[in-house]
Amino acid sequence: MKITFLDLHKINTRFETEFQGVFQSFLDSGYYILGNSVTEFENAFANYCGVKHCIGVGNGLDALRLILEGYKMLGKLTEGDEVIVAANTYIATILAIKQAGLTPVLVDAEAETFGFDCSKLEQAMSPKTKAIMPVHLYGQITNMDKVNAFAIAHNLLVIEDAAQAHGAKIPNSKFQKTNTGYDKSSHFLKAGNLGDAAGFSFYPTKNLGALGDGGAVTTNDEELAEVVKMLRNYGAKTKYVNNLEGFNSRLDELQAALLLVKLKQLDSDNNRRREIAKMYLTQLSNKKIILPTVPDVDAHVFHLFVVRTDSRDEFQQYLTKSGVGSLIHYPIPPHRQKAFSEWNQLSFPVTDRIHNTVLSIPISPVMTNEEVQRVIEVVDSY
Ligand SMILES: *Cc1c(COP(=O)(O)O)cnc(C)c1O
């Protein structure tokens, strides 16, 4: 039995008939940019996340960048301001900060949860620090109580990188950053509603994935929503009237229509991912393999199931030979990349250790129990 790391074809053919209907209506509409499907999806996704506003944009990187550009336009950020970000994040978070003319300040991670090491936040502060970007890496909401308490104490904007965490949720908390919180009565708050604004990606492999590129900004901040909506479309509120120096980063109309179909399946897909994760967490027993720490299963949507081992490369070769797909998320941390040569001498020991030991094993809503059992058998025989 061969188990691929992620079968995107199988994930998407579940919707084949609906997709075909959607494409026909899209074609027949004669309206291909920022049409009804984008608006409908924005409303549906805002509602899903429990936020007031959702703005569809071109991809996840742009979502994060446009939030930062938006805050610059509103005078809440200025070129050269510092933004605290996790050293072990995917490179997009850092690129968004740099492209917006701001300065990323990296903070080392915690090996167990892959989130910020919150004890290191204080020393990352300077008079120029204006924002913090928590990343819900691998689908697990990072320690938002601590991050928000820190942000409140230092008057920082909180911008979530929620690109891997569609649908993850935590109990409603007194440390909620936004006093504009939309759904105060709710017992849970979802990723995308845990700070001042959040960026999502709908890259095909994400828990809510398009059949191409896509992204969204979510926020309860009316002013920011309005600015981002202009920025994504050449800075115009009305066609050909350009209030701001904008960008071209719109959520594609067809992708929005497809995402509307898939959004209905998201909770059930996430639950299936949790079910598989529980099987891994309770049944895997190989002493050489360190399992992820999951304090709250609702706060995790298992975009990835990431284990650690000192013999990672050998373990991966063994899995490949045994017919089990795996990937490394990620092989090189941002501060070791050639693109950021100015950081190559910096030291983030936990981040380095994470990148040298992590391996993602298969998890997806379309995996069968037999496939899961086979992965467990193979991993435990290593
Ligand atoms: C996927 C991802 C992004 C970027 O999304 P794109 O749609 O590829 O631009 C940003 N941050 C994280 C953590 C991601 O996983």
Please give the structural blueprint:
Blueprint: H1 8-13, H2 16-29, H3 36-49, E1 53-57, H4 60-73, E2 82-86, H5 91-99, E3 103-107, E4 129-133, H6 144-154, E5 157-161, E6 169-171, E7 188-190, E8 197-201, E9 215-219, H7 222-231, E10 236-238, E11 241-242, H8 253-263, H9 266-283, E12 305-308, H10 312-321, H11 349-357, E13 358-361, H12 369-380
Parallel strand pairs: 2-3, 2-4, 4-5, 5-8
Antiparallel strand pairs: 1-9, 6-7, 8-9, 10-11, 12-13
Helix pairs in contact: 2-8, 3-8, 4-5, 4-7, 9-12
The chain binds pyridoxal-5'-phosphate.
Q: What would your notes on this structure say?
A:
The protein has 382 residues and is an alpha/beta fold. It folds into two domains: 8-263, 3-Layer(aba) Sandwich (Aspartate Aminotransferase, domain 2); 266-381, Aspartate Aminotransferase, domain 1. The chain has twelve helices and 13 strands. It has helices at 8-13, 16-29, 36-49, 60-73, 91-99, 144-154, 222-231, 253-263, 266-283, 312-321, 349-357, 369-380; strands spanning 53-57, 82-86, 103-107, 129-133, 157-161, 169-171, 188-190, 197-201, 215-219, 236-238, 241-242, 305-308, 358-361. It has a seven-stranded mixed sheet with strand order 1-9-8-5-4-2-3. It has a two-stranded antiparallel ribbon with strand order 6-7. Strands 10-11 form a two-stranded antiparallel ribbon. Residues 59-61, 89-90, 92-93, 135, 161, 163-164, 201, 203, 213, 215 line the site of pyridoxal-5'-phosphate. Pyridoxal-5'-phosphate is lined by residues 59-61, 89-90, 92-93, 135, 161, 163-164, 201, 203, 213, 215. The active site is at 206 (proton acceptor).
